[in-house]
Amino acid sequence: QVQLVESGGGKVQPGGSLRLSCAASGDFAEVGTMGWYREVPGNQRELVATITRYMVRDYRDSVKGRFTITRDLGKNTVFLQMNNLQPEDSATYYCNADIRPHARIPPSEYWGQGTQVTVSS
Hints:
Elements: E1 3-7, E2 10-12, E3 18-25, E4 30-39, E5 46-51, E6 57-59, E7 67-72, E8 77-82, E9 91-100, E10 108-111, E11 115-119
Parallel strand pairs: 2-11
Antiparallel strand pairs: 1-3, 3-8, 4-5, 4-9, 5-6, 7-8, 9-10, 9-11
């Protein structure tokens, strides 16, 4: 069974930093694009950042220059370094990945369980 396991959320003051991690585990052939999304109750889940297997990165405008997404291909892990956090960054952050369970089967989308990030003084 394929799982995405997240860690690293918490509470910080404005201007602080957090680092989120997400590891894919289970039996699969390949992990494709990985990314982070966030959701606030009552709002739609929104994309924060993505990174392909070829290390092509994409960010939502509001986090550019503050957040950095990286990945370790060998460990099937993605990271999100979040600096200069602001109250509007408070949300539940979800890891997302396109995972191919077998070489001849198209990839499916998987989600982590979510980790809470709270930015407050």
